[in-house]
Design a protein that fits this description.
It comes from Thermanaeromonas toyohensis ToBE. This protein has two domains: 173 residues, 3-Layer(aba) Sandwich (Peroxisomal Thiolase, Chain A, domain 1), CATH 3.40.47.10; 156 residues, Thiolase/Chalcone synthase (Peroxisomal Thiolase, Chain A, domain 1, 3-Layer(aba) Sandwich). The chain is built from nine helices and 13 strands. Helix 4 links the parallel strand 4 and strand 5. It is globular, with a radius of gyration of 19 Å. The protein has 339 residues and is of the alpha/beta class. The strands form four sheets. Strands 1-7-6-4-5 form a five-stranded mixed β-sheet, with helices on both faces. Helix 1 packs across helix 2.
Length: 339
């Protein structure tokens, strides 16, 4: 019998405090209707005093373990999929996460592909599990709060005004024969490697009182025109390409898609992707009440879809992401029991 890896359970943690479109309008000077209709969100979660990046991943992981009825000591491997903007610089998130959930038998490491990390990590975890007989249960978890790094007075980062906060987790098991993780496709474009980042805090521009006072410890777009032109050329085609090629690797086509777990993006881009795939609006939830919680979006979308009855046994679910750098990724999951 062919070995497979399935999703045992998921968990999502959303902070209780929200920033509304009206708040964004006041901060940025953009009309509220533009925030809601063009940028595409009515509100987004923001972190409370205790909502640190890894800690939100721990909260989501505990939910996933409880739902899956998994004991922490059953976990063989912990993969941290959250952001590198976390409690401390140079901290290994997976090890803190491992301790936070009590996974005493596990070992752990971090992976990073910006907002594409969860979708990429599903592939990495599946491949590791199939290649290693001693890795049977894997926890993927992490948090995100890059909205802290947004200056709403900077129009160059307007497309990131939707950045929120939260955590997500997935428990994978080998031989589960349910919610089977299938093929993946990832594209990276090095021409955009230096397009977006935090100006100060790295080796090029050290973090000093002067750089902080100048507002340089915030996200920025270093080549706005170059990035705009390149993304107009490749972004939508790459979204569609990773979806189609991940499906092809899985033995399916776009006609088989039951549900699309799509990251939050501007409304027109979301609608364009659905139209190109001949999908109905109810085959993908538009996250207008959450904004963009980075690499947590796909798991949030899946949980919302399951709650609303939009995903049922037998459905082909495609998780789709993109991250600055620039990367596009898709992973296919066949929901429900294997036939």
């Amino acid at each position: 019998m062919k070995k497979t890896v399935g999703i045992r359970s998921t968990g999502v943690y959303i902070p209780s405090t929200f920033m509304t479109s009206a708040d964004i309008a006041r901060e940025s000077g953009i009309p509220q209707e533009i925030v809601e209709e063009k940028l595409g969100f009515k509100r987004k979660p923001i972190p409370g005093p205790d909502d640190h990046t890894i800690e939100m991943g721990i909260k989501a992981a505990r939910l996933a373990l409880e739902k899956g009825e998994i004991k922490p000591e059953e976990i063989d491997l912990v993969i941290y999929i959250g952001e590198e903007y976390k409690e401390h610089l140079l901290q290994t998130g997976a090890i803190k996460l491992q301790g936070g959930v009590g996974a005493t038998r596990a070992w752990g490491f971090d992976v990073q592909l910006r907002c594409g990390t969860m979708v990429m990590a599903l592939k990495i975890a599946k491949d590791l599990m199939l290649a290693n007989e001693n890795i049977n249960t894997v926890l993927l978890a992490g948090g995100y709060r890059n909205g802290d790094l947004i200056n709403y007075k900077n129009p160059r980062v307007r497309f990131m005004y939707n950045l929120g906060a939260g955590g997500a987790a997935v428990v994978l098991q080998k031989g589960l024969r349910r919610n089977t993780v299938l093929g993946s496709r990832i594209i990276t474009d090095p021409s955009l490697a230096d397009a977006v980042g935090v100006t100060a805090g790295g080796t090029k521009v050290p973090l000093t009182p002067e750089t902080v006072a100048q507002g340089l410890y915030s996200l920025d777009v270093f080549d706005p025109e170059g990035m705009k032109n390149r993304l107009e050329e490749v972004s939508m085609p790459n979204f569609l390409r990773v979806i189609r090629e991940a499906l092809e690797e899985s033995g399916y086509s776009t006609a088989d898609i039951g549900y699309l777990c799509l990251l939050h993006m501007k409304r027109s881009a979301h609608e364009y992707i659905l139209s190109q795939l001949n999908l109905r609006p109810e085959q993908s939830i538009y996250l207008e009440d959450y904004g963009h919680i980075g690499q947590m979006d796909q798991i949030l979308s899946l949980e919302l879809a399951l709650e609303r009855g939009l995903v049922k046994d037998g459905d082909i679910v495609v998780m789709v992401s993109a991250g600055v750098g620039y990367a596009w990724a898709a992973t296919v999951v066949k929901w429900g029991p294997e036939e």
